[in-house]
Amino acid sequence: MNTIKKCPKCQKEVDAKATKCPYCQSDTRSWVRQHPIGVFLLFLIFLPIVISQINAEPTPVQTPAQQIHEVKFQSARILAKSHIEKIPLTSPSTAKYNPPTTKVDPTDPNLFEVSSYIDSQNGFGAMVRTYWSMKLKFKGEDTQESVETDANWEIVEFTFDGEKIK
Ligand SMILES: [Zn+2]
């Protein structure tokens, strides 16, 4: 049993249980014992950090294939939107283009379906909702440059206001 410790100040051997050095009167307790409030405050400061780390969702690390897929996904959406916005409407100033929904074909990772609707006034001034949906196929290589090249995309199906245009 270790019943003797060294005084941190004068380095003389003192009883392990002593809180005060009998030679130099300095506090021989550990830093933690000497600073209970400081330890408690540190605990209060770091506890939320520790909790947030435990609860934090793991940062998703995307593989290069996943990154390319994400670029394709966004490109399909942007391409479809730009096509839709070129279609002349009766009352363009009243048009509200709602954000599209993009889906990947379950059997073909290069086939995307983008759909949404436009609210705008018809010739009689009544608000009408026009649904549209577009299927876009990517035919290029799996590189960012290739995905961002419009020529590598083909509209394979297009329905606008209930009418199958392609
Ligand atoms: Zn001492």
CATH class of the largest domain: Alpha Beta
Distance between the termini: 89 Å
Count of separate DSSP helical elements: 4
The major beta sheet can be summarized as: 6 strands, antiparallel
N-to-C SSE string, H for helix and E for strand:
EEHHHEEEEHEE
Q: Give the quaternary arrangement of the chains.
A: single chain
The total domain count is 2
User: What portion of the residues fall into strands of 2 or more residues?
Assistant: 25-35%
Bound compounds, each kind once, are: zinc ion
CATH-defined topology of the largest domain: Nuclear Transport Factor 2, Chain: A
Mean pLDDT: 92
The parts where pLDDT drops under 50 for at least 5 residues are: none
Principal-axes shape call:
elongated
Strand elements, count: 8
